[in-house]
Amino acid sequence: MEKKFIGAGLLSGLVAGIVAFIFARLFIEPLVVEAIDYEEGRSHAEEMLAGEHGGHEHGEIFSRSIQENVGAGIGTIVFAVCMGAFFAVAFTVLWAYLGRRHPATDPRLAAVALGAIGFVAVFAVPFFAYPANPPAVGDDDTIGARSAAFLTITILSVVFAVVAVVLALWLRPRLGGLVAGVLGALAYLVAVSVTIMLLPEFHEVPGPLSDATGQIAFPGFPGDVIGDYRVYAIANQLIMWTVLTVVFALLLGRLMRSGSDESPDAHVAQVDA
């Protein structure tokens, strides 16, 4: 059964990745184009102010068409498939406990709860700490520090989520499911809040470019592009996690009643094995 869970996770991730890429191609890619145009315009303005007339041309290894269609598509789908695999592994571990201790639990509800936890821990909290930015936003000198900080909050958020779930399951027989869930969520929120407070902040949105006289030679990065980009980034991830979870839950329902004469207890035994 574990292999079937993994297969369901991979298939769910594939479907989610395709849907997420279509959404990103329609709504996010135009904003990326705007950001790239701004970056090129600003670079030209900086060269003019520095007296470097004529500029520097940098040939692209891959055209924008290849980048926005093939590159972005492969990247999005591979990421979603990986998330689907991790989701399936996490569900297998969770169901090994719930199926044995609480056999009346609907596995589809467990998958939905796991999907919500995954969205919050893997995306929402890291995004809140370090929101996604379009191209041209960010200082090249801080790429390493920003990447390390983002990776740190992501890993710790997932670890804290696992601890919170374990805590809630441990408290459930003593305090009831609702109270245990609330306490686990509060513990998670406290842990991630303290972590975010300890991590560095980065404010790197380009402001207006001024010449020697103080006149604005080129405007700052458009705030509406940043706002729209972040809103669509949230929507894109919400769509991906929703599709992944729903497809997995549907496949899970089929798996639990598919083609064998095994009882639910036998399924639980296989997961425990």
TrEMBL record:
Membrane-spanning intervals of the chain: 7-28, 72-97, 109-129, 149-171, 178-199, 231-252
Coiled-coil intervals, chain numbering: none
Keywords, sorted A to Z: Membrane, Transmembrane, Transmembrane helix
Matches recorded under Pfam families: CbtA
Name assigned to this protein: CbtA family protein
Organism: Gordonia tangerina
